[in-house]
Amino acid sequence: MAKEPVRVLVTGAAGQIGYALVPMIARGIMLGTDQPVILHMLDIPPAAEALNGVKMELVDAAFPLLKGVVATTDVVEACTGVSVAVMVGGFPRKEGMERKDVMSKNVSIYKSQAAALEKHAAANCKVLVVANPANTNALILKEFAPSIPEKNITCLTRLDHNRALGQISERLNVQVSDVKNVIIWGNHSSTQYPDVTHATVKTPAGDKPVRELVADDAWLNTEFITTVQQRGAAIIKARKFSSALSAASSACDHIRDWVLGTPEGTWVSMGVYSDGSYNVPAGLIYSFPVTSKNGEWSIVQGLSIDEFSRKKLDLTAQELSEEKELAYSCLT
Amino acid sequence: MDYLALMEKPLVVLGCVYLSWKIIRNIWSFANIEKEPITVLVTGAAGQIGYALVPMIAKGAMLGPDQPVIIHMLDIEPAAEALNGVKMELIDAAFPLLKGIVATTDVVEACKDVDIAVMVGGFPRKEGMERKDVMAKNVSIYKVQASALEEHASPDCKVLVIANPANTNALILKEFAPSIPHKNITCLTRLDHNRALGQISEKLYVHVSDVKNVIIWGNHSSSQYPDVNHATVSTCNGQKSVRELVGDDKWLNTEFITTVQQRGAAIIKARKLSSALSAASSACDHIRDWVLGTPKGTWVSMGVYSDGSYGISPGLIYSFPVTCEKGEWSIVQGLKIDEFSREKMDSTAKELIEEKSLAYSCLN
């Protein structure tokens, strides 16, 4: 007996990340290979023809799981009945733009999309904000969609989490699938804190702490952190384009683990609504270590935070509070 | 009583054997013995199709969700930095199935021990170029890559050529890698096959997963022949013929055919870029069905070495309907070919013979 299809929205779908993401969704990578999907793709009118081209390619690929495609520039049509919303669309920073300008443009986009989602999405719609400034865009979305449960609004830091796993696996020359439980704290920006204090590597002798195996605290506290923080820029330098492939893959991981649950003994990083855990101010969208079960995430509690980490956690929280203020000033 | 005593020993032995087998199976699955990784080469990997394809391979869409892979990526020197960027992103995505990445401009390093080779790299047609010029460039590329594959790839390496002119590039590859079994050299017409399924599903308002057994005959070019004579749709009343359900032979014999033939151009017009997403997805389908087998009662289209079936000259790489089992394809035999189809099939064969001639002339 085939499952009922799930409607998945991707905004900014005519762009690079959208193009990498939609075939992954259509192949069952996001929700499982037995879960039929209907894709809703939204973009702005100047991208309408390109968006239609993506729809044509989705038809051409004859995906067995893809039970429908809606390609539209109408935000209401896009949001109607969706159970999962991946917000890739946003206003990119252009040369000469001030931070306030970028913030102001994105605040108005996320304000209007919040209203549409609140009104037309399926109940219990899960939202993942990817477009930068991801945490603050997600916060704006939450503020203007008060009837969407705050636990359903998240932002993507899984890319940074996966990047951290990758860096450790390269350093130790082990398979990335044997590394787990890094944490990305805070803002998906250069103040994020990639923390390996509780990370482990699977060895023939059981799980060993990363810090012990790397045995180079100087590297872990400096170069490792900056490499992960600045990886986005490194990709742009090499490719001349930003990271679409890895962002799309990480978005699939984020949703899949949220919906289908995290493996036993493993946590992941998600930008979620802070409840004050770990002395992070409540009311921010802040990246925490989480496990997920039965479609709900919960912050992993009780992890020890040393002095070095405390400073980093607070620094990124401070940046988020400033962004929040800047965003609100754009609204008045 | 005697009887029971006689049976006792064998029963105990049987019981022990059964229990031991169960215990061993339990330990085996508990220890989670992983399959050996399969090495997959993608040439032209820094380009659009490569970028769409490598995450699909790394996520198990090509060889199955339990099959670890090692990806080899090859491109030319000018693309080396971009290629390294793709390698960085593959690391960043932390794919559990991806057990190794090689990003290189050295064709020997790229071809070493590969089990599957997807040849996306080729010389694209630029404005002002004559057909002969494009052919000449590609012939020399595929001649070189043929030797490298023959010398360094795994003995049973399966090859899929995508770069255009796909059929003829595959033929050149075959000619210059004589020790690669000719059944292991194929070209991609699965994209056209999937496009045909898509067009039928749109016309009939059915799910594409309910349409099957279209055929793409011939060259992956505008002379290809998308044939629905044996295609069916799964309905509540069983399999029904597409011709019957569409009820519009004129459309099937004209507009449907040209739409599928020219779909590539339509995508370029809409996106301003060519079809990477659907080409990559279809490449995964081609390899997956070849390696893991086609579903019962279903065939697919693959460009394969012609053995003279259906009156097509042997010695061409021509797209036929095939089924796959145990890692080998076989042409579906005995399908009826009407006059209309005969003409189309011969026309595309003729074009392939001309391309072969042109390719050989470039070699002298």
UniProtKB/TrEMBL annotation, chain A:
NAD(+) binds at residues 12-18, 43, 106, 130-132. It holds the Pfam family Ldh_1_C. This is Malate dehydrogenase. Signal peptide: none annotated. It comes from the Eukaryota. Substrate binds at residues 93, 99, 132, 163. It catalyses: (S)-malate + NAD(+) = oxaloacetate + NADH + H(+). Belongs to the LDH/MDH superfamily. MDH type 2 family. PROSITE patterns: MDH. Residues 6-153 form the Lactate/malate dehydrogenase N-terminal domain. CDD domains: MDH_cytoplasmic_cytosolic. The active site is at 188 (proton acceptor).
TrEMBL record, chain B:
Residues 40-185 form the Lactate/malate dehydrogenase N-terminal domain. Its EC number is 1.1.1.37. GO terms for molecular function: L-malate dehydrogenase (NAD+) activity. Substrate binds at residues 125, 131, 164, 195. Pfam families: Ldh_1_C (PF02866), Ldh_1_N (PF00056). NAD(+) binds at residues 44-50, 75, 138, 162-164. Residues 189-357 form the Lactate/malate dehydrogenase C-terminal domain. The keyword NAD applies. It catalyses: (S)-malate + NAD(+) = oxaloacetate + NADH + H(+). The keyword NAD applies. GO terms for biological process: tricarboxylic acid cycle. InterPro entries: L-lactate/malate_DH (IPR001557), Lactate/malate_DH_C (IPR022383), Lactate/malate_DH_N (IPR001236), Lactate_DH/Glyco_Ohase_4_C (IPR015955), Malate_DH_AS (IPR001252), Malate_DH_NAD-dep_euk (IPR011274), Malate_DH_type2 (IPR010945), NAD(P)-bd_dom_sf (IPR036291). Keywords: NAD, Oxidoreductase, Tricarboxylic acid cycle. Belongs to the LDH/MDH superfamily. MDH type 2 family. This is Malate dehydrogenase.
